[in-house]
Design a protein that fits this description.
Strand order of the largest sheet: 1-3-4-6-7-11-12-13
CATH class: Mainly Beta
Shape: elongated
Number of helices: 3
Order of helices and strands: HEHEEEEEEEEEEEHE
Distance between the termini: 40 Å
Largest sheet: 8 strands, antiparallel, barrel
Strand content: over 45%
Number of domains: 1
Number of strands: 13
Structural class: alpha+beta
CATH architecture: Beta Barrel
């Protein structure tokens, strides 16, 4: 696995070196707001409600992304960009108990990923549009739970662990995340303001949780979905 990762990094370095020699290169910094949520397979959603014996609702949670980027302009408004950023994802969910009348809790899940987005883009008269894949690796995060009748939140570190993750434990994730992104924006000189959507394609449940569902031939799957609003500062190139 490590050899494959090293080889991929070496190939990317060679590719970017070649592109740097044949294209206008711009560098930049980018940061903004994430509005994150998670999507679940129907089998998992049904089983989770049955085990919890209550109602569970999910909603967007505010988070952030920040990092650097490099863009290679090939002319005619066409180019290729790549970035390296921290991106916080997750969701907010609320549980109302069926066994204990009046019992509820609100949970905030925020896993943190080191993410590499790559996009083919088009720029013209200030307009910007880009689309492409991303890949991320989980490095940190917290799950905070506020129960009814209690003043303080409980806080737990997120674990990126495929071997020990339990099917209904929100603190366990698979380390790898990947998907596809779309971004639209407008440039004011060196400043770009944009909106984006990242559609997760990787099952971020731990492998152990997925296998647990497979025992009864149930599909346990969870993916990240993120709406983003960003400001980027770019320099170099034209």
């Amino acid at each position: 696995m490590q050899n494959h990762l090293n080889f991929s990094i070496a190939c990317m370095f060679v590719l970017f070196t070649i592109m740097s020699a044949t294209a206008q290169v711009r560098f930049g910094a980018k940061a903004g707001l994430n509005l994150a949520n998670m999507s679940y397979s129907e089998d998992y959603a049904i089983d989770h409600r049955n085990v919890a014996e209550g109602s569970i609702t999910t909603s967007l949670i505010p988070a952030f992304h920040a990092g650097g980027l490099v863009e290679f302009d090939f002319g005619a408004g066409i180019g290729l960009s790549a970035g390296l950023q921290l991106s916080v994802k997750g969701e907010r969910n609320k549980y109302k108990g069926g066994l204990i009348p009046g019992f509820s809790y609100t949970q905030k899940i925020r896993p943190v990923y080191v993410q590499v987005p790559v996009a083919v883009y088009y720029r013209n008269s200030g307009f910007y549009a880009g689309a492409g894949p991303y890949i991320g690796y989980g490095v940190a995060g917290k799950v905070k739970t506020k129960k009814s009748g209690e003043e303080n939140e409980e806080s737990e570190d997120i674990k990126f662990d495929n071997k020990n993750g339990q099917p209904y434990d929100s603190a366990y994730f698979s380390p790898l995340d990947f998907g596809a992104g779309l971004e639209l924006g407008y440039e004011f000189g060196s400043i770009r303001v944009s909106a984006s959507y990242n559609l997760g394609l990787a099952n971020v449940f731990s492998k152990n949780a997925v296998d647990w569902g497979g025992i009864t031939k149930r599909e346990y799957k969870c993916t990240h979905n993120v709406i983003g609003v960003s400001v980027a500062y770019l320099f170099g190139g034209e």
